[in-house]
Amino acid sequence: MAIRVLLVDDQPLLRTGFRMILEAEPDIAVVGEAGDGLQALDQVRALQPDVVLMDIRMPRMDGVEATRQITGPGRDGPAKVLVLTTFDLDEYVVEALRAGASGFLLKDAPADELVQAIRVVAAGEAMLAPSITRRLLDKYAGHLPSGDEPVPDTLHTLTEREVEVLKLVARGLSNAEIAADLFVSETTVKTHVGHVLTKLGLRDRVQAAVYAYESGLVRPGAQ
């Protein structure tokens, strides 16, 4: 079945460009468009897309709030949100990730990267390069809690090895890098990451990284 995509951007010309790129792919179908966050909410309810390609800066309702309402607590719909940004360190990206986005992509990314990002997010993975995860969380650590708050009870549900894996995820390491660091197989790492996400009630490794910072398990700037 084709991946159903909703395009959300306040610039019609950009939406047209994205549509042309995505509709050239046999496994992707653009099911609708929206010019702001409010329209996006209506379209998500009506069209039930698999992936929402979401601009951040829009009139009436921005992409952060729209993402929060699409993917927030209590939302059982299938839609994943891939955030679009003009700058690779847009100050709103961290907020969008915390709101439930599965990753972000630069608007000037090559066409093949856009297509691959749609497929990755539709498959339930996070589209965010490890180095970008680290840079974002370190640069915008001021948006996150200080870490002085009590450690969440949910953190105690993890095994010692799962805590190790979570710390490495938060540092922006890929599964292959984590496997090398812990001297285990990538399959084992994937299993541990899956357990971490399930136990903590998180959608993907991006939210796991944010959780690690918010809980105080990892400190901004720490190696």
TrEMBL record:
Response regulatory domain residues: 4-122
Keywords assigned by UniProt, alphabetized: DNA-binding, Phosphoprotein, Transcription, Transcription regulation
Domain HTH luxR-type: 151-216
4-aspartylphosphate PTM positions: 55
CDD domains (alphabetical): LuxR_C_like, REC_NarL-like
InterPro entries according to UniProt: CheY-like_superfamily, NreC/VraR/RcsB-like_REC, Sig_transdc_resp-reg_C-effctor, Sig_transdc_resp-reg_receiver, Tscrpt_reg_LuxR_C, WalR-like
Listed name of the protein: Response regulator transcription factor
Organism of provenance: Streptomyces glomeratus
Taxonomy of the source species: Bacteria, Bacillati, Actinomycetota, Actinomycetes, Kitasatosporales
